[in-house]
UniProtKB/TrEMBL annotation:
Protein's name according to its UniProt entry: Secretory lipase
Keywords: Signal
Organism lineage string: Bacteria, Bacillati, Actinomycetota, Actinomycetes, Propionibacteriales
Signal peptide, first to last residue: 1-27
Organism the protein comes from: Kribbella karoonensis
Signal in keyword set: yes
């Protein structure tokens, strides 16, 4: 892979986490515990003044000034895995300093991450951590899960798994409520939900759970999702093969999806049934959580056609059986519920990772069920550019509901 291509992928991964860049103010307060920890715990990891928040928010032009200093904590909490078994996961809760009593929660769900060391709870340069802190700087409580298998969670990440994206988000919210009570903070009932890319899609699923009364006493207060792959069957998978998604980027995400879904859905018995040589012997190991994006890119070919066997590539383009059922189930995030609050979806016309048609498709499905949905085009911006353009608006909108 060329250096230019690696940089392009890092900046525009189809369901990628927000760009990370050095944020010196986010230096860790303590060392992360080991991933073998199984008890619920909380560790302070960062403190920022309003001036420091404003300084590190420079890449979000138009973001409102912060009114509060904030303290971020890493929580390790109990949840369940893809098979319903007890496990633990990590995430962050960010409290606005000096605010007590009943506060509104803004829960932020991050995009694709294939590296355990990169999520907000462990990486001091994480922009996901920054975005969550910017909500707290407005007087909200910021909450952000790492998802299963990332950060300090054991095992591999079950990528694009609606069930655990939802349960990890819900269980962190409940754990954060117990933790915040120790600091004199109670959570208001209505939760503001947002997410980028993979997290955009996950935010629809989490919003659905809140709307159905499946998350303790909480309910959905607002939903704003950015550049999410909401329609895998109708839009995102076809785009991964017809060139609308950049081929190396499509290769990364399809490899991640297929190896993860093989563990949860069962797509092949032997990697050679899905992947061509020499990748069949190495691709699963690339996504074990220990490799950086650059290492993964270097270990993959430049297009899906070079990674998958012709038979499996055809299966991805024309899914049947358990693969089709799994994709259809994933796409239900926009199809089987009616939001009781307005939904705002954000897209960019130059997004060659998660094509903008995903937002249009999701909006059409939700409106068909009576949902009030607005699609915001952020203009001629790429994948991460959509997030940088959208989040100042989202932070401002959520601040009005603090």
């Amino acid at each position: 892979m060329t250096s230019r291509l690696t940089k392009t992928l890092a900046a525009t991964l189809a369901a990628a986490a927000l760009f990370t860049y050095p944020v010196a103010a986010f230096g860790a307060v303590g060392h992360p515990p080991q991933s073998t920890v199984v008890r619920t715990s909380a560790t302070p990891i960062a403190h920022l003044t309003p001036a420091q928040l404003d300084a590190v928010a420079a890449d979000f032009p138009g973001a409102p000034k912060s009114s509060y200093a904030v303290t971020a904590y890493r929580l390790i909490y109990r949840t369940t895995d893809a098979h319903g078994r007890p496990t633990t996961a990590s995430g962050i809760v960010v409290l606005p300093d000096g605010r007590k009593g009943a506060l509104t929660v803004a829960e932020y769900l991050h995009g694709t991450n294939a590296t355990k060391a990169a999520p907000a709870s462990v990486d001091p340069t994480s922009t996901d951590r920054l975005v969550t802190a910017l909500f707290a700087g407005q007087g909200l409580v910021g909450v952000a899960p790492d998802y299963l298998g990332l950060g300090l969670g054991p095992g591999p990440h079950p990528y694009l798994d609606t069930k655990t994206e939802t349960s990890a988000s819900a269980d962190l919210l409940l754990a954060a409520r117990r933790f915040a009570a120790q600091h004199g903070v109670a959570f208001k009932r209505d939760v503001l939900v947002t997410g980028f890319s993979q997290g955009g899609r996950a935010s629809l699923a989490f919003g659905r759970a809140l709307s159905r009364g499946e998350v303790g006493p909480f309910r959905l207060g607002a939903l704003r999702a950015v550049a999410g792959p909401y329609d895998l069957l109708g839009e995102e998978l076809p785009a991964a093969f017809d060139g609308r998604v950049i081929p190396p980027t499509a290769t990364f995400y399809l490899a991640y999806l297929v190896t993860a879904w093989n563990r949860t859905v069962g797509l092949y018995d032997d990697p050679r049934q899905a992947f061509q040589a020499p990748y069949a012997s190495t691709v699963e190991g690339l996504f074990d959580g220990s490799h950086s994006d650059e290492e993964i890119v270097a270990g993959l070919p430049g297009s899906p056609g070079k990674l998958f066997t012709p038979e499996f590539a055809a299966r991805l383009q024309h899914p049947t059986g358990r693969l089709l059922r799994a994709i259809q189930a994933a796409d239900q995030v926009c199809q089987d519920w009616t939001p009781r609050v307005p939904v705002h979806l954000y897209s960019g016309t130059k997004d060659t990772d998660v094509v903008a048609a995903n937002a249009d498709s999701c909006a059409t499905s939700l409106r068909r069920r009576g949902g009030d949905v607005t699609v915001h085009s952020m203009g001629a911006v790429d994948h991460t550019g959509t997030a940088f353009a959208a989040y100042p608006e989202i932070i401002r909108a959520f601040a009005r509901q603090a």
